[in-house]
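Q: I'm a student working through a structural biology exercise. My instructor gave each of us a protein and asked us to get a predicted structure, then write a short paragraph describing it. Mine is Protochlorophyllide reductase ATP-binding subunit. I'm not confident about reading structure output yet, so if you can add a plain explanation after the tokens, that would really help. Here is the sequence I was given:
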Amino acid sequence: NISIALARRGKKVLQIGCDPKHDSTFTLTGFLIPTIIDTLQMKDYHYEDVWPEDVIYKGYSGVDCVEAGGPPAGAGCGGYVVGETVKLLKELNAFYEYDIILFDVLGDVVCGGFAAPLNYADYCIIITDNGFDALFAANRIAASVREKSHTHPLRLAGLVGNRTSERDLINKYV
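A: Happy to help. First, here is the predicted structure for Protochlorophyllide reductase ATP-binding subunit. I'll explain a few features afterward.
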């Protein structure tokens, strides 16, 4: 919804999904787009053989979509996949083609790989619900932002309470 709203306001938006369910990009494109990691495997990890149209797909309201992909559960590191996605998009100069880039990461894991997109961000907005687990993840992301802000021009822009009528835990956390 955020991507669509920004696109409708005239912004050029890229939404990067990072979930085995493809839930953020599927809802925008209507199909399971090939993942970055699958595309890289098909090209034997020759980044120079990957073109933007191989990994960037047009979604609803003109939102461009990328799906990072990932290993099966217990078979690898999702943070590695996020790092490879950032590396490829940097090679394709994608970070400079958009007004807004949204990276929909799994909030329950905030390792170095998952924090890699913060190296290219000016601001981080955390979207959470009122549950303890979601707020625990939000706290980990905020800690990552604080750490990255020592070496990058990055700031935490805020916290959005999503799909919740109760905000008592969110208010206490803030």
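A: Here are two points you could use in your paragraph. The chain has two domains: 1-106, 122-173. The first strand starts at residue 13 and ends at 17. It's a good idea to check both against the output above yourself.
Q: Great, thank you!
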